[in-house]
Design brief:
Elements lengths: L7 H27 L11 H9 L1 H14 L3 E4 L2 E4 L11 H9 L4 E2 L7 H9 L1
Antiparallel strand pairs: 1-2, 2-3
Length: about 120
């Protein structure tokens, strides 16, 4: 029996049952594929959120601000330099080590955002 040959009320009943079956199947399949434990994320990593917000440039700027906040970089006007007591061994993250190495010489605060090697390290990590 072909459902399109059914009379009006019988066709509507068939259509309602068919729609309910399709929606129920989609619900069951979706629940199956979306079940399980939530993904584990490091929610205390500021570089993860910086990368999601603005990419590699944002990671470099957040790392720079973090090093300034800890006193490892010094700012005078628009120039950033490494503090005399700052050493790359004091930090754990690779982008911070690269920033400390980059800041041996005084540079404009925006220059780090344009350095290709820093952006590459930020995007890799």
């Amino acid at each position: 029996m072909f459902p399109f040959n059914l009379p009006g009320p019988a066709f509507l009943l068939f259509y309602a049952l068919f729609a309910f079956a399709v929606i129920a199947a989609f619900y069951v399949v979706r629940r199956h594929y979306e079940s399980g434990p939530p993904p584990s994320l490091d929610l205390v990593n500021p570089f993860l959120f910086a990368c999601l917000r603005g990419g590699a440039k944002e990671v470099v700027s957040v790392a720079t601000l973090g090093l300034i906040d800890r006193g490892l970089l010094q700012v005078t006007g628009r120039t950033v330099t490494r503090s005399p007591e700052a050493k790359p061994e004091l930090v754990r993250r690779r982008i911070e080590k690269e920033l400390l190495s980059y800041s041996k010489r005084p540079a404009e605060i925006d220059a780090a955002l344009k350095d290709a090697s820093l952006l590459r390290v930020a995007s890799e990590d």
